[in-house]
Amino acid sequence: MRPLLLRLAIVLSLVPLAACSDSSPASDAVSSARKSPVASTPHPANTPTLSADDQVKLVAWFEEGRHKQGMGVLDRDLGNFKRSVAIAPSTPADFRNVHSACRDLDHDLSIIKDFEPIPDPPTQALWSSALTNLRQGATQCLTGSTANDATQVTKAKIALMKGDTDYSAVMARLGKALGVTPTPTSS
Questions:
Q1: Confidence at residue 22, expressed as pLDDT on a 0 to 100 scale
Q2: Which of 106, 111, 129, 170 has the greatest number of C-beta atoms within 10 Å?
Q3: Which bin fits 179, alpha (ψ -120 to 50), beta or left (φ > 0)?
């Protein structure tokens, strides 16, 4: 889903530029991008409606290297966490695997939390909720996995899954705002 959003962001960043085109041959690629099915897909009623300026701001935010990279890292970290807790931890090796996944998630969340706000207030509210739940879950997970406490890890899993649900809602909203249908991640 997220790589598709990145491709769409690039295409949509060209669409506003096409309006300024002088119809030279170099603008043919932009014209075909404007005619692509992704850019002309009708929006359902619950799709965020953004002005052209707001959409350009959203695309610019999303295209900014650290945002794309940070979301990719977050996807990886969440996938690693999900795999680490697929079976309830019971052995020291299980807890080490969980601890490693939660440590990486906690570290990367400490960086991601400093991202600039998403320039769409409803999406930013979801993003903030996702980060809050993910940070809470990562902290609980580190505590539980350090103490080999399966109950604490289970509590952490609940918070992390809530954060993951919020994060999925952010990605879905970004996808709708950018005119694509998000696809589920493989993690």
A1: 38
A2: 170
A3: left
